[in-house]
Amino acid sequence: MKKLAEEIAERATIEQKNDWIPLSKQIPYLKIPEKCKIKVIPPYNGVLVRFSIKKDNKIIDIVLDYEDKLKYSNPYYTLQFSIEHDEFPREGQIFYLNEVDEMFEVINEFL
């Protein structure tokens, strides 16, 4: 088992390699719709951030891919829409970082 100091050093190396501190200053604030719940999800598949917004039985999974790990050339959010207990989410939509207002118009419309 690794010592805590070794784990912290490894994490710091990853953070520096990926420029996470400067990067965090470039990510815009998000306007979360009223009466929604938020669930933070670990960032698997190489993306930077994952989280879900839920209102009643509607869920939107939001992914921030900053390094084009999935498909697109610029940093972007992708949205996957679903109804609770659906086996498969509906088709997603892509929004670049400068399209956050438009993204939340779509989110509010779905919710």
Give an overview of the whole structure.
This protein has helices spanning 4-17, 20-24, 100-110, and strands at 37-41, 49-55, 58-65, 76-83, 90-96. The protein has 111 residues and is α+β, with helices and mostly antiparallel strands. It has one domain (29-110). The chain has a five-stranded antiparallel sheet, with helices on one face.
Produce the secondary structure layout:
Layout: H1 4-17, H2 20-24, E1 37-41, E2 49-55, E3 58-65, E4 76-83, E5 90-96, H3 100-110
Antiparallel strand pairs: 1-2, 2-3, 3-4, 4-5
Tally of individual helices: 3
Q: Radius of gyration in whole Å, from Cα?
A: 16 Å
Q: Mean pLDDT, nearest integer?
A: 83
Percentage of residues in DSSP E strands: 25-35%
